[in-house]
Amino acid sequence: MTQLSDKLTNFIQQMPKAELHIHLEGSIQPKTVLELARRHNKLHTLPSDNEDGLRQWFTFVDFPHFVDIYLIIQDLIRTADDFALIVYENGADMAAQNIRYREITVTPYTHTDIQDKGLNFAELFSGLENGRAQAKKDFGVEMRWVFDIARNLTDKPDGSYDPTPAEKTLAYALEGKAKGSVVGFGLGGYEVGYPPELFTHAFEKAKVAGLLSVPHAGEHAGPASIWGSIRALQADRLGHGVRAIEDPALLATLKVQQIPLEVNITSNLCLKVFPSLATHPVRQLDDRGLFITINTDDPPLFNATLVQEYTLLAQEFGYDAKGLARIARNAFVAAGVEPNVKERLLKEFDAWVRKNR
Length: 357
What we know:
There is one protein chain. By secondary structure, the protein is an alpha/beta fold. It has one domain (6-350): Metal-dependent hydrolases (TIM Barrel, Alpha-Beta Barrel), CATH 3.20.20.140. It is built from 16 helices and 8 strands. It has an 8-stranded parallel sheet with strand order 1-2-3-4-5-6-7-8. Strand 3 (142-150), helix 8 (164-178) and strand 4 form a beta-alpha-beta unit. The longest helix is centred in the middle third of the chain and has 19 residues, at 121-139. The chain is globular.
């Protein structure tokens, strides 16, 4: 590990940043988890009534364990006001880390269709938008939404594929796009047993409508998941994508096509995708000419921040300020935000880098 200079530490903190891979339901801080549990008389569903206890709870043994905890937290988000609170707190977190733009992934189907919350999509969306508007007003930050399908909810009782979750999520995404703030269509959940090809029907319609195709691939499944996402889902970006390192032909394709990878280093370690920082391929992927971005996935659940992820790049992978700025710029370039906002954000970023290099 390299000891960073104060100058580089300050550079990382103050550098304008964008983040493309963060889940709303996984971005809730422990204090807010407790607040929501008390609000809805569900404190008994948690293993602890204090923040330190919850942080210890967020020690995952594998991906299914992570999903179990994720679903318990998700059950606490029950009203439009809950969504507004979580989004607003995202804005406060962005301001604290100088994150100027975030694309936040939301899984609406799990809140409106499979849990008895009495919550409809209009209420959910109004909460998202109210929180987003207040955060922009108070902190000057920009957020847009990615609506994603949860793969593990697409099983019929007989084990066959149920297209309903994908089709409903698509309908919600198209409605949100029409209102100007949904920019991407995603695919999350456990990859194993749910190949991308199952979801071609929904992604084809999303692409025609102008949404970015941003499936998770190459996290808990290998290169086949990435190939399927490229070929069947016409992926514009890949959530994770890090297991491309296992397939030289895939690495060559990703280099030529410059499909951005949404890399989440700490998440990959916590969920055992790679056993250690020494084995994580982020530097190899970058050195081979792939288009990488840096993200946090579910930051409180992994005790991570975006500042810490960039610090890891410097401490563990040898990046200097120039390299960090190059990678940080990638996220603005790959963003799905409307062109005039992207142009403004890039101009602000480039001006800051020129002033601070």
